[in-house]
Structure formats: structure tokens, C-alpha cells
């Protein structure tokens, strides 16, 4: 309660944990007592319980008093010991102070002993040098003898004495180093100054031997083995000194084994690849590559069969030499590629690097297998370098193909002006050597590229398609120039039509054979752009032929329509004779092109006939004249249709049906029904315009303004859309502009 807290003893306030423990104990006791004395029969033992607890408390208090007493006695003893230790520490401090003053006094006297100490060190050095003098005096004599041994190529004996001298020098220097006599080392080294010359002389002979190792292992392997033994001795000494790491003598480590590899690699590099300038032309490069192939195989045989037996196994000399040849050859090929190689040179280099190098003629030679394996060394030419070289090769081939194609086109152009007709094949079709030359040239280049890689073959194929497309463009330009010459003088070229027919056959031959150039036989489709170029070339030749035909037809077309023509004439018969004359020449065409040209001829004749009708040269003045016109149109169209059917052109492929349909417009007796007839006409021929219809109505001569207006209004209400496969007929026919009529009468000028 609050009152208990106010009356709590100072001890309880100082130790709150004790107060908490006491409360817990009282609570536990009260709980126990309430549980025990809950029943009345247990109250009889209350007095016994009180006496037992009193005795128990007395026992606990007595044990606590004895424990506290023993702790107090221990604390008292510890305090006494601490007092004694403090007295002893003060005594030690006084003695240390006295010793410090004594040492300071002695230091002043020690300054006078320094000269004596230096004199003693010098005496010790002199004594050490005096002890070594007999050995040092003999160094010059041993050096001279060692030099004589080296001049006599007694390398093992010379190296033994050299090792003895170096061991003596290193031992003396080590002793001086341990004794701290570094100042005497310079004096000692002066006696061993000849060692450096001996080392250089021995090293020079060793590296000369290693440089001639490929020859020596065949002629005198003992000398080479001696050099290797000396190198191994020095390598062991280097390793032993490096492991001690306490004192490293001068000129160590020598690392002669590493130098051995370096000299051997330089020897290989110098003997094969430090040649004069390599000829960038094909024959010179071929000789150079053949010499490399022969020398590398020969030298690797020597290494595999002889040198391997002369060196320790851990030298791995065969793999080291193989890697050296591979890496140096790779760099050498890159140097060659920096030259301006021609097409043949680039091909030789690619073939040699990608095929010959790994073949049984070189690194896969039976004499080298299975020990020599370059598969783990990577490619001789990186994929990037191969791709770059292939692109260079394609550029060179492209220039060559362009030159040959241009020359072929020039020859072809000259042949067009010959006095003789073009040659024919066994079936009588006109042809020239152009497609054979072009296809053979492209096919040879693609097949040659296939000998290298598929990627190069694909690159050359793509280039060939591009060049063929460009060639067709130049061929069309040449046809255009020939056509202009023909316009100036129709007598030249003499066999103009025949050579145009030959060119159509050539285009067909190119179109049918170009798919065989594709590297993949499963996908031999002609590229869309090239097919379009072939189609344009074919159309150009057809256009020139039709222009030639048109020049002969135009004088006849100018004569119709006319009164003479209405009354009956041989005009269309003459036209048929001209057409028949040309189609006889067309018989020298192969069938696909012949059919195309025949269809274009028929369309040209139809359009010229319709164009002549729409020139407003004739207007029917009566129903009788309209009847004559209808009869003439029927006869002409029938005659022309029979002509083309006889030439092999089916009626479904003809456009002459337009003349029959136009005749129906003319023959219609009731002008009021013209709108329905015209609607059927424009539905069948959607490219006809209102100007065409208006001209046809004028040709009838009996159409009023109201009927004309109704017909034209009907056409506006029914616009037509050209079907996708529709062959235009009327869109190429221009109608003469109508004459302007003045509404004012003519009068005198003011």
C-alpha cells in the first residue's frame, strides 16, 4: 500500500530487488498457509509448525553469520597484501630511477669508444678478405681456362668450371652478406669481372646452337643435347636460389629455358616468314604458299621424329613448335592480306587457310598424326577475317564480271548491225551467244566460290544476281540506242527485227536458266527484282518490235474511216498482209514469247483500229451509211479475228471483241436505248471514258443533245473500277479535243 511504501526502510529503497523478493516470499507463504490451515482439523498442528519454523530460521541465520564472517576475514587479508605490494612497487621505482641516472652517465663515456668500434669492423673485413685471397687469386686463371674450353666447344666442361666460379662467388658474397660486410662485396666482385664475359660467350654459343637446332638434330644431335643439358643445369640453380630467397646473387635468375623457347620461336619465324616482299599476283602467291606448306611439314617431321628425343618430356617441344608455326602463320597471312591481292590471290589464300592447312597434305599429314593436333589452337583465320577476305574477293570478282559483261554487250551490240541474220538453233529459233556466255561466267564463279565456303558461295551468288540485273538494264539501254538508230534510217540495222527476236529468245533463255545458279537446289526461285528486270527487258524488245510494226500499219490506219473504206476496199486485207509478214518472222520465237508477242500485236492492231475510228474523220449522214459502217466493222473485225485465230491466238485471248461491241452501239436503231447499250459497254470495258462514248455518238450522226446528256449522266452515276487482270484498251486511245464554237457571228473589226 501507499503507507507501506512511505514506511519502507532505507535498505528496501536502496535494494528494490530485495523488497520484491520479500513480497513474493510472503505471498507464497500466505498461499501455502491458507491452503494448509483451510480445514479446522489442521489448526491443531499450528503450534508445532510455528516452533519448527522458528528453529529453521535460527539455523539459517547462524549459517549466514558464519559465511559473512569468513568473507570479511578474506577481504582483510587481501587488503594487507595490497599494502605490501604498494610498498614494494615504490621501492622498485626508486631503484629504476637510480639505474637511469647511471646509464646516462655511461653514455657520455661510450662516445669515446666509437672510433675503436669502427677500427674493429675494418679489421674484421680485412681479416675475412685475407682468408679469401688464395681463392680470389685463382679466379683469373680459372676464367682463362674456361674461355679456352668455350673456344674449343667443350661446353659441358666449360660450364662445369663456370658453375664452380659462380658458386665460389655466390658463397663469398653470401658470407659477407651474413656478416654485414656489404662494403667488401664490390672488392670481391672485381675479381669475378670475367664471369660476365664467360656467361655471354657461353650464352651466344648456346643460342647459336638452338638457332640451328633443326639442322643439328639431323647432323649432330650431341651438340644440341649438350646445350639442352646446360640450360637444364642453369634452370635448376635458378629454382634452388629462388626457393631460398635469402640471398639472390648477381645475374640471377638467368631464365635460360625461357630464352631457349624464345630463340627457337624466332628461328622458326625467321626461317619461314621473314621472306622478301610476297608477290600479290596469283602465281607468285601460289609458289610462296606451296613453299610454306612444304617447309612446315618438313620441319615438323624433324621436330616430331628427332628433336623430341633430344629434350626432356616436360619441354613439350612438339606442341610448342606446332603452336609457334600456327600463330606465326596466322600473323603472316594477315600481313599478306594487307597487300592488294588480286582475285586469284584471295581465292588461293582462302583455299589454303581453310582447306589445305588442315588437309592430309599439311597439318593432317600421316607422318605428323596423331601427335600434331592444331584443332585446339583455334582457326588459322578468324571468322571475322574470313568474312572480310570473302567480301574483298567478291569485290574483285564483281569487277571482273562487270568487265566481261560489258565486253560481251559491246560485241552483241556490234552483231546487231551485221549483214547476216542471227544464228539459229536446231529448231530454227533465232539466238546469240550472249546468254551462254553470261550464264557460264556467273556459274563458273559461283562454283569456284563453293570450293571455299557456303557463305562465300552465297555472297558470290547475291553479287551475280545484282550484276545480272544491272546488265539487263544496260542491255535495255543498248536496245534503246539501236531503236534510235533505226528511227534515223530504217535500212539500218539490216536485220533489225531478227535480232530483236533473237534478244527475246535470249531473255527467255536467261529467265529459264538463272534459277539453276542458286546454291540451294531446294530453293531455286528467281529473285523478284531480277525477274522484274527480265520482264522489263522482254517488254523493251517487244515494244521495239511493235513500234516497227506500227510504222508499217500507220499509213493504212490513216485511210480509215473514209467513204472509200465504207464502200469497200482492200485496206484491212493489206493490214493482214503486213501482220502476216511480221508473224512469219515471229515464228523464229520460242512459244511462250511468241504467244506474248502475238497477243501484244493483236492488242496493238485493235487499239490502232479503234483510234482511227475516233479521230472524227467520218460522221454517218444517214441510216444507210450507219448500216454500211456496221457491215464494214463486222467484216474487218471478222477478218482480223480469223487471221489471229489462224496464227494460234485463241478468241479468249483477243481484244478484237471490243470492235464487235462498238459495232452494236453503231447498229442500234433506236437512240433512246443507247443509255442501256452504253451501260453494258462500259461494264465490259471499264477503261472507256465519256470522251470515247461522246466520240462514238458523234460517229453515229443521229444522237440528239438530250440523249447524249442522258447517256453521259448515266455514266457519271455508274463509275467503273478496273478489275485486277483487265487488259486496258481504251485508256491508251486519245480523243481529239472538240472544236470551239463561237456564239457570236463574224463581223468586221472596229
Automatic annotation (TrEMBL):
Keyword terms, alphabetized: Cytoplasmic vesicle, Exocytosis
InterPro entries noted in UniProt: EXOC3/Sec6, EXOC3/Sec6_C
Residue segments, region Disordered: 1-22
An example Gene Ontology molecular-function term: SNARE binding
Gene3D superfamilies tied to this protein: 1.10.357.50, Exocyst complex component Sec6, C-terminal domain
A GO CC annotation given for this chain: transport vesicle
Subcellular location: Cytoplasmic vesicle, Secretory vesicle
Record has Nucleus as a keyword: no
Predominant location: cytoplasm
Pfam family, one: Sec6
Quaternary structure and partners: Interacts with EXOC2, EXOC4 and EXOC5; may be part of the exocyst.
Function: As part of the exocyst, may play a role in regulated exocytosis of insulin granules.
Protein name: Exocyst complex component 3-like protein
Amino acid at each position: 500500500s501507499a503507507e507501506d511504501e512511505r514506511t519502507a526502510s532505507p535498505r528496501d529503497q536502496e535494494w528494490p530487488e530485495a523488497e520484491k523478493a520479500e513480497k513474493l516470499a510472503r505471498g507464497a507463504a500466505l498461499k501455502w498457509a491458507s491452503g494448509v490451515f483451510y480445514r479446522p482439523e489442521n489448526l491443531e498442528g499450528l503450534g508445532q509448525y510455528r516452533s519448527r519454523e522458528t528453529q529453521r530460521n535460527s539455523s539459517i541465520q547462524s549459517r549466514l553469520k558464519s559465511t559473512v564472517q569468513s568473507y570479511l576475514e578474506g577481504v582483510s587479508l587481501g587488503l594487507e597484501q595490497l599494502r605490501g605490494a604498494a610498498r614494494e612497487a615504490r621501492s622498485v621505482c626508486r631503484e629504476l630511477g637510480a639505474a637511469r641516472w647511471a646509464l646516462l652517465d655511461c653514455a657520455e663515456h661510450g662516445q669515446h669508444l666509437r672510433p675503436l668500434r669502427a677500427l674493429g669492423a675494418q679489421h674484421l673485413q680485412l681479416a675475412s678478405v685475407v682468408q679469401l685471397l688464395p681463392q680470389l687469386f685463382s679466379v683469373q686463371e680459372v676464367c682463362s681456362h674456361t674461355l679456352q674450353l668455350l673456344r674449343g666447344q667443350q661446353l659441358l666442361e666449360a660450364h662445369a668450371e663456370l658453375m664452380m666460379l659462380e658458386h665460389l662467388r655466390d658463397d663469398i658474397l653470401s658470407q659477407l652478406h651474413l656478416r654485414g660486410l656489404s662494403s667488401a662485396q664490390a672488392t670481391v666482385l672485381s675479381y669475378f669481372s670475367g664471369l660476365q664475359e664467360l656467361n655471354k660467350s657461353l650464352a651466344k654459343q648456346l643460342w647459336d646452337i638452338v638457332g640451328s637446332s633443326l639442322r643439328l638434330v639431323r647432323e649432330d644431335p650431341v651438340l644440341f643435347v649438350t646445350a639442352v643439358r646446360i640450360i637444364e643445369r642453369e634452370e635448376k640453380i635458378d629454382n634452388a636460389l629462388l626457393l631460398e630467397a635469402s640471398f639472390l646473387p648477381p645475374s640471377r635468375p638467368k631464365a635460360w629455358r625461357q630464352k631457349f623457347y624464345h630463340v627457337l620461336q624466332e628461328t622458326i619465324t625467321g626461317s619461314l616468314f621473314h621472306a622478301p616482299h610476297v608477290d600479290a599476283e596469283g602465281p607468285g602467291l601460289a609458289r610462296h604458299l606451296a613453299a610454306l606448306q612444304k617447309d612446315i611439314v618438313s620441319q615438323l617431321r624433324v621436330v616430331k621424329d628427332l628433336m623430341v628425343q633430344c629434350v626432356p618430356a616436360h619441354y613439350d617441344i612438339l606442341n610448342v613448335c606446332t603452336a609457334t608455326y600456327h600463330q606465326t602463320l596466322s600473323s603472316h597471312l594477315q600481313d599478306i592480306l594487307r597487300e592488294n591481292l588480286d582475285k586469284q590471290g584471295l581465292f588461293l589464300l582462302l583455299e589454303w587457310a581453310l582447306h589445305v592447312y588442315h588437309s592430309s597434305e599439311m597439318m593432317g599429314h600421316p607422318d605428323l598424326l596423331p601427335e600434331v593436333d592444331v584443332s585446339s589452337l583455334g582457326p588459322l583465320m578468324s571468322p571475322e577475317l574470313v568474312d572480310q577476305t570473302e567480301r574483298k574477293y567478291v569485290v574483285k570478282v564483281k569487277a571482273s564480271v562487270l568487265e566481261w559483261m560489258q565486253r560481251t554487250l559491246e560485241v552483241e551490240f556490234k552483231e546487231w548491225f551485221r549483214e547476216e541474220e542471227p544464228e539459229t538453233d536446231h529448231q530454227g529459233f533465232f539466238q546469240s551467244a550472249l546468254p551462254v556466255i553470261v550464264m557460264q561466267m556467273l556459274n563458273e564463279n559461283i562454283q569456284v566460290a563453293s570450293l571455299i565456303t557456303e557463305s562465300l558461295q552465297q555472297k558470290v551468288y547475291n553479287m551475280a544476281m545484282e550484276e545480272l540485273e544491272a546488265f539487263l538494264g544496260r542491255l535495255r539501254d543498248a536496245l534503246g540506242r539501236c531503236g534510235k538508230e533505226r528511227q534515223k534510217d530504217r535500212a539500218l540495222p539490216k536485220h533489225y527485227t531478227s535480232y530483236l527476236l533473237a534478244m527475246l529468245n535470249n531473255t527467255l533463255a536467261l529467265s529459264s536458266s538463272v534459277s539453276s545458279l542458286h546454291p540451294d537446289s531446294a530453293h531455286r526461285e528467281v529473285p523478284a527484282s531480277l525477274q522484274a528486270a527480265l520482264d522489263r527487258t522482254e517488254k523493251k524488245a517487244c515494244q521495239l518490235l511493235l513500234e516497227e510494226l506500227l510504222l508499217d500499219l500507220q499509213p493504212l490506219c490513216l485511210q480509215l474511216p473514209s467513204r472509200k473504206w465504207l464502200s469497200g476496199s482492200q485496206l484491212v486485207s493489206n493490214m493482214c498482209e503486213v501482220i502476216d509478214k511480221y508473224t512469219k518472222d515471229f515464228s523464229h520465237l520460242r512459244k511462250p514469247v511468241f504467244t506474248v508477242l502475238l497477243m501484244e500485236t493483236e492488242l496493238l492492231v485493235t487499239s490502232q483500229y479503234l483510234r482511227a475510228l475516233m479521230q472524227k474523220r467520218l460522221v454517218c449522214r444517214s441510216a444507210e451509211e450507219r448500216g454500211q459502217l456496221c457491215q464494214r466493222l463486222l467484216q474487218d473485225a471478222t477478218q482480223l479475228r480469223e487471221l489471229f485465230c489462224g496464227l494460234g491466238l485463241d478468241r479468249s485471248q483477243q481484244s478484237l471483241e471490243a470492235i464487235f461491241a462498238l459495232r452494236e452501239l453503231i447498229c442500234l436503231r433506236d437512240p433512246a436505248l443507247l443509255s442501256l447499250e452504253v451501260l453494258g459497254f462500259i461494264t465490259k470495258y471499264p477503261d472507256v471514258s465519256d470522251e470515247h462514248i461522246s466520240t462514238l455518238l458523234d460517229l453515229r450522226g443521229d444522237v440528239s443533245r438530250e440523249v447524249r446528256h442522258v447517256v453521259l449522266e448515266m455514266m457519271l452515276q455508274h463509275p467503273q473500277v478496273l478489275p485486277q487482270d483487265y487488259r486496258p484498251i481504251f485508256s491508251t486511245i486519245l480523243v481529239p479535243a472538240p472544236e470551239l464554237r463561237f456564239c457570236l457571228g463574224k463581223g468586221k473589226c472596229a
